[in-house]
Amino acid sequence: DAVLFDSPNVMYFARTAGEGKVKTVGPLYEGQSYGIALTQGSKLREAVNISILKFMENGQYAELYKKWFGEAPQ
């Protein structure tokens, strides 16, 4: 049997409730991008952008991703 599903969800399931029952195989089929919506002209935009950039640059994103999904993001 096989299934195609959102990669982070599948990787988390394979490491938790599905451990020993399912496994992920092969490369990522298709990458998806996510965003954060703010109202136009929001005063939060710059602070949110800076926070995301710092989160990515200082390694926290990769660290949390690996903790919850088992491997570093690509």
UniProtKB/TrEMBL annotation:
- Source organism phylogeny: Bacteria, Pseudomonadati, Deferribacterota, Deferribacteres, Deferribacterales
The name under which this protein is listed is: Glutamine ABC transporter substrate-binding protein GlnH
Superkingdom of the source species: Bacteria
